[in-house]
C-alpha cells in the first residue's frame, strides 16, 4: 500500500536556496582572517551542520577562536549574501505543493536568526507550516528536529518526505525511518547520497518537482 504524503520537509541551503558558493566564500574569509588552513572542498563538505559543529569540524585546533571565527563568518555572509535567491523553479514547486494541501516545513543547519532573515528575504514565511533551525535543537544528522516537526504537524514519519542535498539530511531522515529524496545540484555527490537509500535523486528542481508531485498524487492502493 502506498503511504499518503502529508508533509514535505526541505533543507534550505543547496536544496531550496542557491547559497553554497557564498557560504564557502565566507568560511574561507573567516579562516584567512584568523590564519587557519581551510580548503574550499572542506568548507563545502560541512554545509548542513549547525554552526558550533562546523567550527568543531573545520577548526578543532583552535577551540578558543570558535566564537570569533563564527562571528567573522556570519558578518561576511550577511554582508555578501543579499542577492542569493532560490534555485530556478523553487517558488513554483513550493506554491504547487501548498495548493495541493501538502504541509511544508524547513529543517536547516542555519541559526534561527539566519533562517528568519532568508525567509523574509524570499517572502516565504507563510509557505511553511513549521521551520526548525539548528540553533534551537540538535544539529543534523541527529533526527530531533524532524521529530519536533512531526510532533508539531501531527504527521507520522512514513507520511513525510525529507528533501536535502547532503548526507546529513538523508542520514537524519534515515535515523527516524522517514522516506527521503536527494538533490545532486547542491553539496554532496550522487555516490554519497545513494548510501542513504533515497527514494530518488533529482538533478534539478524540475525533476524534484515532478517526483514530489508523483508522490503526493499517488493513490492509496488496497
UniProtKB/TrEMBL annotation:
SUPFAM superfamilies, per database record: HAD-like (SSF56784)
Molecular function GO terms recorded: phosphoglycolate phosphatase activity
InterPro entries (alphabetical): HAD-like_hydrolase_sf, HAD-like_sf, HAD-SF_hydro_IA, HAD_2, HAD_sf, PGP-like_dom2
Gene Ontology, cellular component aspect: cytosol
Highest taxon of source: Bacteria
BP terms from Gene Ontology: DNA repair
A Pfam family assignment: HAD_2
PANTHER family: HYDROLASE-RELATED (PTHR43434:SF24), PHOSPHOGLYCOLATE PHOSPHATASE (PTHR43434)
Entry protein name: HAD hydrolase, family IA
Source taxonomy: Bacteria, Pseudomonadati, Pseudomonadota, Gammaproteobacteria, Moraxellales
Amino acid at each position: 500500500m502506498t503511504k499518503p504524503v502529508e508533509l514535505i520537509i526541505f533543507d534550505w541551503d543547496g536544496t531550496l536556496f542557491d547559497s553554497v558558493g557564498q557560504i564557502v566564500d565566507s568560511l574561507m574569509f573567516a579562516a584567512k582572517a584568523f590564519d587557519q588552513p581551510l580548503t574550499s572542498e572542506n568548507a563545502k563538505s560541512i554545509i548542513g551542520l549547525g554552526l558550533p559543529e562546523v567550527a568543531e569540524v573545520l577548526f578543532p585546533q583552535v577551540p578558543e577562536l570558535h566564537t570569533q571565527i563564527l562571528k567573522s563568518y556570519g558578518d561576511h555572509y550577511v554582508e555578501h549574501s543579499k542577492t542569493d535567491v532560490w534555485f530556478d523553479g523553487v517558488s513554483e514547486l513550493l506554491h504547487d505543493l501548498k495548493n495541493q494541501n501538502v504541509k511544508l516545513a524547513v529543517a536547516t543547519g542555519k541559526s534561527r536568526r539566519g533562517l528568519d532573515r532568508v525567509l523574509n528575504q524570499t517572502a516565504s514565511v507563510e509557505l511553511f507550516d513549521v521551520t526548525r533551525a539548528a540553533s534551537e535543537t540538535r544539529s543534523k544528522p541527529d533526527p530531533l528536529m524532524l521529530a519536533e516537526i512531526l510532533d508539531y504537524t501531527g504527521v507520522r514519519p512514513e507520511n513525510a518526505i525529507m528533501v536535502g542535498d547532503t548526507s546529513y539530511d538523508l542520514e537524519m531522515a534515515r535515523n527516524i525511518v522517514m522516506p527521503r529524496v536527494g538533490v545532486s545540484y547542491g553539496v554532496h555527490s550522487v555516490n554519497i547520497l545513494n548510501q542513504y537509500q533515497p527514494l530518488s535523486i533529482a538533478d534539478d528542481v524540475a525533476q524534484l518537482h515532478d517526483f514530489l508531485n508523483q508522490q503526493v498524487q499517488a493513490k492509496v492502493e488496497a
